[in-house]
């Protein structure tokens, strides 16, 4: 399996989604992991099943490629990917290369006609990675004034943040997740998906951050610590008490906790600073403003996006047709809802 050294060296996001621990999480969620490796490349592919179309493989933020060693090994990587795809009876392989160089290698070995952009990105193309160097005073000084004000306002209003893995708090966190997704009309993961984090990851790797006032949860975040990187993966907030600005203090205390655990950087997740595209960009405006407020000078990390390696043209063509028709229905439903 992939070592943390290999991942930290060749995965610019730290490599969590290609770690052994992530593979265990996906297995617990019903997605069989298939490992592949060779000189200069490595990764985990996860099996997904679609009604009518059968199986496909997904390699989140991978495959991981060592550009200094992959030369003359490209055909071996193709063989390894085809081997795991055959084992899964996959019609296509969904990939998320860490860099454009890796994507071009895959296009070369499989043929450009068979490596095409997926219907949508699975993980964001752009993430905000914030350095945890310095101290709390440094962080506050670097924040946008409004963010700094809101952190202090939350404290003034009596908001406190604690960290927990108790079953009761996990259920409170899930309630906040579902309240948020209902409010924003987006689909959450199944509840067991969130529970699996705590059943799979040890307490050294995973915790909840809960913002409360008078013992009542207002906002929560799921944090994972892997190598030198802390990841803010999922978050939710209550429908009420939004004037308390709890999410600001929640993130600030989460950054403190990440540094206490030895992390050097904090992954805020997806933003849209320079990668705006599509009709839903306005949905990202508030998210991006909120996250950038903590480190307005931090540079974002870019990824090439999500691509599909087509192995069964017939199955894949049918899948794309259905996806296109579904998109049309969703578009008109969106228009009608705003008439």
Identify low-pLDDT runs. Answer: 331-339
Major pleated sheet = 7 strands, mixed
How many beta-strand segments?
Answer: 14
Q: Which range does the strand content fall in?
A: 25-35%
- The separation of the N and C termini measures 53 Å
> Based on helices, strands and strand pairing, what is the structural class?
alpha+beta
- How big is the Rg? 21 Å
Number of helices: 11
Output the helix-strand order.
HHEEEEHEHEEHHEHHEEEHEHEEH
Shape: globular
* Helix content, binned percent: 40-55%
Mean pLDDT: 92
What tags apply to this protein structure?
disordered C terminus; 14 strands; alpha+beta; 11 helices; seven-stranded mixed β-sheet; 339 residues; 41% helix
Q: Care to give the gist of this entry?
A:
With 339 residues, this protein is α+β, with helices and mostly antiparallel strands. It has helices spanning 4-10, 20-28, 74-88, 100-110, 136-142, 145-156, 167-184, 191-200, 246-260, 282-292, 313-337; strands spanning 33-38, 41-50, 54-59, 64-65, 90-95, 115-117, 126-131, 160-164, 206-213, 216-226, 229-237, 265-270, 300-302, 307-310.
Q: What secondary-structure arrangement, pairings included, does this model have?
A:
Layout: H1 4-10, H2 20-28, E1 33-38, E2 41-50, E3 54-59, E4 64-65, H3 74-88, E5 90-95, H4 100-110, E6 115-117, E7 126-131, H5 136-142, H6 145-156, E8 160-164, H7 167-184, H8 191-200, E9 206-213, E10 216-226, E11 229-237, H9 246-260, E12 265-270, H10 282-292, E13 300-302, E14 307-310, H11 313-337
Parallel strand pairs: 3-5, 11-12
Antiparallel strand pairs: 1-2, 2-3, 2-4, 5-14, 6-14, 7-12, 7-13, 8-9, 9-10, 10-11
Helix pairs in contact: 2-8, 6-9
């Amino acid at each position: 399996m992939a070592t943390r050294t290999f991942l930290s060296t060749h995965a610019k996001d730290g490599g969590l989604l290609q770690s052994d621990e992530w593979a265990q999480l996906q297995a617990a969620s019903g997605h069989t992991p298939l490992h592949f490796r060779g000189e200069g490349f490595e990764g985990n592919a996860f099996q997904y099943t679609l009604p009518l179309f059968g199986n496909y493989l997904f390699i989140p933020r991978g495959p991981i490629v060592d550009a200094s060693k992959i030369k003359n090994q490209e055909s071996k990587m193709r063989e390894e990917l085809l081997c795991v795809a055959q084992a899964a009876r996959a019609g296509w392989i969904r990939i998320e290369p860490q860099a454009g160089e890796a994507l071009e290698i895959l296009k070369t070995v499989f043929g450009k006609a068979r490596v095409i952009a997926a219907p949508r990105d699975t993980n964001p193309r752009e993430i905000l990675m914030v350095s945890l160097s310095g101290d709390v005073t440094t962080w506050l000084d670097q924040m946008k004034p409004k963010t700094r004000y809101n952190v202090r306002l939350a404290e003034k209003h009596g908001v406190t943040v604690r960290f927990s893995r108790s079953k009761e708090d996990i259920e409170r966190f899930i309630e906040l997740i579902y309240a948020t997704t209902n409010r924003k009309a987006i689909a959450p993961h199944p509840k067991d998906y969130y529970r699996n984090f705590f059943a799979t990851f040890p307490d050294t790797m995973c915790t909840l951050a809960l913002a409360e006032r008078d013992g009542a949860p207002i906002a929560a975040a799921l944090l994972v610590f892997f190598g030198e990187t802390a990841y803010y993966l999922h978050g939710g907030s209550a429908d009420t008490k939004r004037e308390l600005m709890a999410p600001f203090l929640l993130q600030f205390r989460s950054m403190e906790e990440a540094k206490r655990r030895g992390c050097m950087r904090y992954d805020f997740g997806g933003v849209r600073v320079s990668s705006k595209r599509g009709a839903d960009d306005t949905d990202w405006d508030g998210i991006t403003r909120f996250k950038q407020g903590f480190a307005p000078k931090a540079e974002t990390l870019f990824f090439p996006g999500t691509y599909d390696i087509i192995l069964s043209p017939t199955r894949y063509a049918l899948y794309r047709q259905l996806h296109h028709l579904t998109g049309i229905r969703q578009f008109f439903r969106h228009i009608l809802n705003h008439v």
